[in-house]
Automatic annotation (TrEMBL), chain A:
The chain crosses the membrane at residues 20-42, 132-154, 185-203. This is ER membrane protein complex subunit 3. Pfam families: EMC3_TMCO1. The keyword Transmembrane helix applies. InterPro entries: EMC3, EMC3/TMCO1. The lineage of its organism: Eukaryota, Fungi, Dikarya, Basidiomycota, Agaricomycotina. GO terms for cellular component: EMC complex. GO terms for biological process: protein folding in endoplasmic reticulum.
TrEMBL record, chain B:
PANTHER family: TETRATRICOPEPTIDE REPEAT PROTEIN. One of its GO terms (cellular component) is EMC complex. It holds the Pfam family TPR_EMC2. Part of the endoplasmic reticulum membrane protein complex (EMC) that enables the energy-independent insertion into endoplasmic reticulum membranes of newly synthesized membrane proteins. The keyword Endoplasmic reticulum applies. This is ER membrane protein complex subunit 2. It is a peripheral membrane protein. It is found in: Endoplasmic reticulum membrane.
Length: 272, 298
């Protein structure tokens, strides 16, 4: 019965020309439009951080700079050691934390992003961006629902199980139709999620108007992605102490045997 | 000078970040005379900034004011333009006015690195060294990776004869820019002045090691040039001093052991210095004689 109903459907080519292509085109154009909108309106200048926050954010760089060259260090061991130990001390004591060293009896839970006003601002900005991205999508969805409700647009060239029925035939309430037929509203959703790859090719990697990212990320998750989100710097600093200690063991000043290197290079090695 | 060379020069100065103010100013005036500002496209704003700074440097404040006006019309509220306006205020009004201006900028954005640095430089210029050092330390505590800041701190310390502190600042510079031999040379000379001769001679040798392999010749046949010559001078002088007063070898503040092969090192340094001056004529010949005398009585 399934095969007979599949054979019995014949799609008017006009549907392809006047419904399928327009929907796809509108979605691409709308996306490009949203992108320019995004760049010029939504990406406001990065939020200004207070000094202590900047200091906290950049404290890790110090130890990374120090560690990067430790095996061929440009500075003698005594200076290296004093810098390294000062950093270790500051990290264990939490001297670089923006709110000052943590209290001994403070609960060890990560900070709640809802209580931090700065994090809240970041969240609001993320939500605003998403709202503006969502509005055109909702308009398109309304347009499709209004004009093309119940349209069957396309037949997929491969068979699928019944489980895909609700995904591919949204808006058509028939139990009998072959799953391979795709309805207008489902075509919209397939485009919505599937075109991101195409956009990425058109626009190059990392663009801000990637709508599926907005969909998958909840407004609360957005703050985590932004720099300066509620990271537990105290934990990071503590972890860095071990790295510092390890690098201190590796330290070797390039000046240690430089005179032998030079003498050898100039052919003046003393006979020993 | 025609327009294309002028533009070429300006672009070169921009990438090299050099302070050839008179030249930049003259090239900039040509651009304006040919009315070619629009030809620069997006580069024109960078050009205006460059010209404004150069004009302030050569004292043509009227030109600078025009440039800054253009920029602040295009980018209202930009931190970079505000900083440029600060420089203009420094040039036209008293240091106190400039300080208040920078204070205002820093109040609006406490992490505005450019304004903070300008403020520190004004403090230093007006002789408030102590305050400048304090602010600079705080600045470097926040923006550790600012090489310029560390160099400035070392310079301030050196100017106050605090060579040990200067040396410590320079160690941070070396960490941040380990590939630059000029900083290593500065550290070596500071170490020498601070009295840490073993550290100095080793650091001078590091400079030699970093800079002598520019030509294709094997190192021992190459004629040292530029910074390498200066480093050889340092090696020679440190080796001589260490041999004269062996006590210095054990009093190194950084506990650096002195090299064992001092006489050979000194001989090598002498040979390299002689080689550096041997092929020269005229005025340089007297230099070679001077050098021979200096090396001879060692």
């Amino acid at each position: 019965m399934q095969s007979s109903s599949a054979v019995s459907l014949y799609l008017d080519p006009q549907i392809r020309d006047w419904v399928l292509f327009p929907i796809t085109l509108v979605m691409v154009l709308c996306f490009l439009d949203a992108l320019s909108y995004n760049i010029f309106l939504l990406q406001s200048s990065p939020k200004k951080l207070p000094r202590a926050a900047v200091r906290e954010q950049r404290a890790l760089v110090r130890s990374q700079v120090l560690r990067a060259t430790s095996a061929n260090s440009p500075i003698p061991f005594i200076y290296y050691k004093s810098i390294s130990q000062n950093l270790t001390k500051a990290f264990t004591e939490g001297a670089y934390l923006k709110d000052g060293p943590p209290k001994k009896d403070a609960p060890a839970t990560p900070p709640n992003p809802l209580t931090d006003p700065a994090a809240m601002d970041g969240m609001m900005a993320g939500m605003k961006t998403q709202m503006v991205m969502m509005v055109p999508q909702m308009v398109i969805m309304g347009w499709i629902n209004f004009f093309f409700q119940g349209f069957v647009l396309i037949k997929l060239p491969f068979p699928l199980t019944l489980g895909f029925k609700s995904m591919l035939q949204r808006g058509i309430e028939t139990p009998d139709m072959d799953v391979r037929w795709v309805s207008s509203l489902s075509w919209y959703f397939l485009n919505f999620f599937g075109l991101n790859g195409l956009y990425r090719i058109i626009l190059g990697g990392d663009n801000s108007a990637d709508s599926s990212r907005d969909m998958t990320a909840s407004p609360f998750a957005v703050t985590q992605q932004q720099p300066g989100g509620p990271q537990d710097y105290n934990k990071l600093f503590k972890a860095e102490c071990d790295n510092l200690e390890f690098s201190e063991g590796l330290h070797n000043w390039i000046g240690n045997d430089v005179e032998m290197r030079i003498l050898r290079k100039y052919g003046r090695v003393p006979k020993s | 000078m025609d327009l294309s060379t002028a533009l070429q020069r300006l672009a070169n100065y921009r990438t090299q970040n050099s302070r050839a103010s008179q030249d930049i100013f003259e090239s900039g005036v040509i651009v304006f005379r040919k009315d070619a500002l629009h030809k620069l496209g997006d580069d024109s704003w960078q050009f205006l900034e460059q010209l404004a700074l150069a004009a302030i440097d050569v004292g043509r404040l009227d030109v600078a004011e025009g440039c800054i006006k253009h920029l602040s019309d295009k980018f209202p509220g930009s931190a970079r333009v505000e900083c440029l306006q600060g420089v203009y205020i420094e040039a036209t009004q008293s240091a106190d006015v400039a300080l208040t201006y920078y204070d205002k900028l820093l109040e609006a954005d406490p992490a505005n690195a450019a304004a903070w640095k300008r403020r520190i430089s004004v403090l230093r210029r007006t002789g408030k060294i102590e305050k400048a050092v304090e602010e600079l330390s705080q600045f470097l505590d926040t923006f550790y990776t600012d090489v310029e800041g560390w160099l400035e701190l070392a310079d301030i310390y050196s100017s106050c004869n605090q060579y040990t502190s200067a040396l410590q600042s320079l160690q941070h510079v070396l960490l941040l820019a380990p590939q630059n031999p000029f900083y290593v040379l500065q550290a070596a000379e500071t170490a020498y002045t601070a009295g840490d001769i073993p550290l100095a001679i080793k650091t001078f040798l590091v400079v030699v090691d970093m800079t002598d392999s520019e030509s294709d010749l094997p190192a021992k046949d190459a004629v040292p040039t530029g910074i390498t010559v200066r480093a050889w001078y340092g090696v020679e002088q440190s080796a001589r001093k260490l041999q004269k007063t062996p006590r210095l070898a054990s009093t190194s503040a950084s506990q650096t052991p002195a090299p064992d092969s001092l006489p050979i090192l000194e001989q090598l340094a002498k040979d390299m210095l002689r080689a550096a001056y041997s092929g020269q004529k005229g005025g340089a010949a007297t230099t070679a004689q001077e050098l021979a005398r200096w090396l001879g009585d060692a």
